[in-house]
Amino acid sequence: MRKWVSAVLIVLGTLCCVYAVYPILEVHQGINMALDKWEDVKEDKTPEEEKAERADGIIGILQLGNNEKKIPIHVGTTDKELSQGIGLDELTVLPGAIGNSVLYGHRENVLWELKDIEVGDHITIQGVESTLVFEVKEIQIVDPYDPYIYEKSQEPTITLVTCYPFIYMGPTPQRFVVRAQLKSI
């Protein structure tokens, strides 16, 4: 009897592990597919307007500081977009435009490296037409509906938002917010 109980517990434990790891693997696969699509569009010699249309919602690639990891930026913040990278809130401006571009991403598998960012670090966004470099000006931990996230700006600004704390089970009580201003084009 003990052997059966042990075997059942081992099988249940294995299934729980697979259930927990599968979403992470699925997001990595989505990000890799989006990056492949982006590279195809960037290498194509068609006019810039056609490239933007063919990018299938991808408006750029984000890199944090000196980190080599490339994260696709999509328009929208649905589960589909967030499972393939970062999502631009459609109610905000495009990165590089005057105003505040609010970008959301999951902490576990997309913006994990954000926990190590510091004021003064750079965030790079490679778009279809140009590469933008932003300098981190503020880092705050706020409530999920804090108006700070959507605060207006008179300069090109990006606001990266992810759940906080970084290691936490269940719905997170706060948001980790990084605000950066355009440094150069």
From TrEMBL:
Residue runs in coiled coils: none
Keyword terms of this UniProt record: Hydrolase
Checking InterPro entries in the record gives: Sortase, Sortase_D_1, Sortase_dom-sf
Give yes or no: UniProt keyword Ribosomal protein. Answer: no
One Pfam family recorded for the sequence:
Sortase
Q: What is this protein called?
A: Class D sortase
